[in-house]
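Run log, item B.
One chain of 226 residues. Sequence copied directly from the ordering sheet:
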Amino acid sequence: MNCLIVEDEPLATDVLVDYIRQVPFLLLKATCSDAILALDVLQREQIDLVFLDIHLPGLKGLDFLKTLKDPPAIILTTAYHQYAVEGYELNVVDYLLKPIEFKRFLEAVNKVKGKLLRPQRETIAIHADKKTLIIPIDEIMYIESQKEYIRIQTIHSSFTTKYGLSKMEEELRPSEFLRVHRSFIVALSKIKAYSSHDIELDRKSIPIGGNYRELVATKLKGLFTS
């Protein structure tokens, strides 16, 4: 994670520099003694984490934070505990009181790491109704072929786009979706029941094609007995 230190006290800056160097997943990009210099760095560099002192010369730390429309992760550093509530109201990740112990520093940066590296929700983009639509993959129930088009049925709605079912099948994970018919792909997590001839989803029965029955039976048996 690319880090920026915004701190006007040289000794406090030195401590943070030393701590950052001891953590393999942190990379220090710059140190700044005031908020105006920090703003310039944020405009030039990709910064993931800012160690922000509250009592800065000129523009104070919290006032500086309020000016940022899309701030990186923020860890506040200060000798004064009374600003903690206001800091958390601004969605800071953590609040470190000086003098900062390395153990407490490590707890804070691990919290940021967990937040930034949390897996994002997977989506697919399709073109429909003269727009590009973003569909969360975990909301898809099934996909139906309609000649040169496909209809994607989600939990909340359905979307039709010009796309091949086989091409869509190649783009989906086999661990999450299964082709059960020449015209249907189903989401495994949405299956409520099945027989040798069909699969039941919420308010929808999907036929199992004759050429797919053996493969489907093997897959579903393994899925529901694991």
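Observations after the first pass:
- The longest strand covers residues 140-146.
- The helical segments are 10-22, 35-44, 61-67, 84-89, 102-116, 165-171, 213-225.
Flagged for discussion on Thursday.
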